[in-house]
């Protein structure tokens, strides 16, 4: 057996087609001829570059890197075939990774060869292991503290990445430190003082530590990864990333992973990567996995709560994530469902960090069957066995839609995504269908069966209104950790607020 099998790392040794009007059927839906009020229609999302998210420029490689085509389905390769050492192959087997996913199959040989890499793949495709495994193998060959840095857009994603690093590197004793906003900096500084091998951070808090934590430096860094890079730029982290890149060593390996490629992201790659190889396993910027069933429900706005409860009744016993557009709506829906006896918990950007992690853990472990969330939960989170994603409010753009529905049908499993569309959502729904390149089917319902829930929902709505009033009065009174929101996050500067991610 090769000697690296038993080797341990030591910290001390080296220190979406259009909505057809014929779908408006008998169950009291808006009349076919009734035009949507202009004032009620949502404005098209504008990212500052294009008037529509569906018009994002697809950047060509201008000789800066080579493109790697989508992998052939012929001849399944194992992790060992891709060049991983035996100890990491064993870790993959232990975690249930039977064979490499397409993004892993294409990117691992490139990353293991030491080249800079741009990985483009849809959500839920196994991107974390695609960059974690090459970093761990390189760390095994030349152990040192502060070997790798992973930058993520949200706190929850940062914790998730850290957990996967420690799981994949458990046989070689890998240590990670997580630097995110909303948490005390002192324990984080102590963790950095222990010289971890891998640092996983959100940009704002990382820059805080680089500027204020004595003795913390990344001058010896060997690997840099920017995960969900398009989201990093959407959250206006660009200036902070520029400052971070200026203090990192020029001689390093850099990997950038994203679901989409646009002009802003291309500018970042030119600044941070050297002659990168591009691995693209997505046929479209808005591709969803094949085993995801996507439907919509076209209903009058005033019946949204009733249809929501009816849908959850249809999927009784299954886990579900309900996405809302605002923090208040997430809290209200959670109160509403609790009043109806459903096990629901909210997750949004105004909860403090411990409450957010607690909500995620309760949902992950089955303590709660319904998670009501804003788009803080739309990106990157890997929650096993989510059976249903419900878009109670449509997202502002097609890209966010793809990430929301990507919370289900992960790792080869099947899943269902249903979007509630009202008379005010027609334009944005047409754009989503156009971006997906297909027409979604309507979810079959019977109005009489749905309206059976009307009385109970009306009573629960009144309870939810009272709970919301109590919650807001508690906030005005200065109470912390009260109510369903878990209290306000601690006040901080601009970086802290950005790390919280708007709900």
From TrEMBL:
Residues 108-279 form the Helicase ATP-binding domain. It is found in: Nucleus. Keywords: ATP-binding, Helicase, Hydrolase, Nucleotide-binding, Nucleus, Ribosome biogenesis, RNA-binding. GO terms for molecular function: ATP binding; hydrolase activity; RNA binding; RNA helicase activity. Belongs to the DEAD box helicase family. DDX47/RRP3 subfamily. GO terms for biological process: gene expression; ribosome biogenesis. The keyword ATP-binding applies. It comes from Cladosporium halotolerans. Residues 44-69 have a biased composition (Acidic residues). Residues 31-43 have a biased composition (Low complexity). Its main location: nucleus. It comes from the Eukaryota. Residues 1-69, 471-503 are annotated as: Disordered. This is ATP-dependent rRNA helicase rrp3. Residues 291-451 form the Helicase C-terminal domain. InterPro entries: DDX47/Rrp3_DEADc, DEAD/DEAH_box_helicase_dom, DEAD_box_RNA_helicase, Helicase_ATP-bd, Helicase_C-like, P-loop_NTPase, RNA-helicase_DEAD-box_CS, RNA_helicase_DEAD_Q_motif. Residues 77-105 form the DEAD-box RNA helicase Q domain.
